[in-house]
Amino acid sequence: MRFLTAGESHGPALVAIIEGFPAKVPVTQEAIDRDLARRQLGHGRGGRMKIERDQVEIMSGIRAGMTMGSPICFRINNRDWTRWSGVMAPFTPPEADTVTLAADPLLDKVSTVVTTPRPGHADLSGAFKYGYTDLRNIIERASARETAARVGVGAFAKLLLAQFGIFVGSYVTRIGGVGVDYSKPLTPTEQAQVDQSPVRAVNPELAAAMVEKIEAARGQKETLGGVFVVYATGVPPGLGSHVHWDRRIDGQLAQAVMGIPGIKGVEFGAGFKGADLLGSQMHDAISYTPETGWERAGNQAGGIEGGMTNGEPLILRAAMKPIPTLYQGLPSVDLETREPRTAGAERSDLTAVPAAGVVAEAMVAWVLASAMQEKFGGDTLPELQQAFHAYREGLDGGTNGS
Ligand code: EPS
Question: What pLDDT was estimated at residue 397?
């Protein structure tokens, strides 16, 4: 399975094409739009989220509520396009020097042409790489707006996984240094509570402290990063493989999550803390009885050993840096004059850690769904299910048949 997205932040729409997705998987508009709405939330989001109401419009690949096996194509319209159409038009130069923004109390307009790179964003590296002095050409695609399309793609992956009892969820454990050490899978009720939290935190006290921290950052024209956990339950053992570096599923998951804008680190299970433990403290003892089946004494491995899932819940943590667009502006240099200049603000968020958790769910779901398709094969959901059940029966017999 593979997917591509296209679209600029202030173009007419974001588009995704998914190829190789099995046929006969039930799909509803609500299931996809629900995740798109979750991505838009979180205390500390900026004005853009007040404008957009992300919804998928299916162009192909779904008929009567079922995938058809043909490429799935969808679009998510950018409502803000109406304000930017004169600036982002494909065949005519920008009509104006500035764009008047809506729904942003701190910024009423931005320049069409941007020549001062924001430290921490794609601006300067993109300018070097593509030879631009107008950074608008980089900003538009580097914007995290594109992650809406990934969440749409991930929603399809989640629908496939649900057919096998696999669930992917997430929550926030730290924002701006306020946080807890907690890395367990949640029950569906707990996940629903997290999704009600203004910062998607695991408890209300923590949420209140995080909101306070975000409000302090707002007053200082600062931005904040944080840490979120993504977990997956019901994952069968044996997804991924030990045989080649690029088939190791922890590597694939790390790449998928590191590919989200702002993510600077990914760890599994005990993660970096595991480096300080003794071997006997780190590794999860194995036991088996016919009544209980295979059991592990803990889950320090985060559900992955030898580049393969081991049947325990998948536990991944990711660190997100503070958003690099600051309303105070950071020291920089103008690309045209080479003179020192404060980087201008684009409309942005104070923090997007709660949203990044939802995007990471999508990417984790995509990697797991791809691994399921690779291991159990077939063009249709019933074929996948048949192979999956045969594999599970082999496992329940104590070995997988040899
Ligand atoms: C985002 C859309 C963006 C920003 C944010 C996330 O809107 P715009 O492109 O109009 O600024 O609100 O992106 C960033 C903070 C960033 O640095 O790229 C979204 O849809 O999530």
Answer: 67
